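INTERNAL AUDIT FORM
Audit reference: QA-55
Scope: verify that the stored structure record matches its stored sequence.
Auditor: D.O.
Record contents follow.
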Amino acid sequence: MTQDGRGRIVSRQESLHDQGIGELEPGTGQREQLRVRLADIAWTCLCVVLAVWAVLESVGSLNGSARWAYAGVAWVLLGAACVVRVSAVRRRARV
């Protein structure tokens, strides 16, 4: 229990609702923002993992290992993931 700005004692849920947090019901703006945020996090994680893989495979292929094909695949996948991520951000900015 907390007090609001008018001195009333309200529950924590009522307090959060009064601040405009809102519900995560389908079709609400907050639900859409959550979906977009989770997609951003997922794409960022994918790009980071692909970048680490590409760098490690490139270093491995420079050390004389025959892993140059894996390095090439890693760089191609990283490039594709980055292009898709940037285009998704641009598409969202236009809407």
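Auditor finding: record pair retrieved intact. The radius of gyration is 23 Å.
Action required: none
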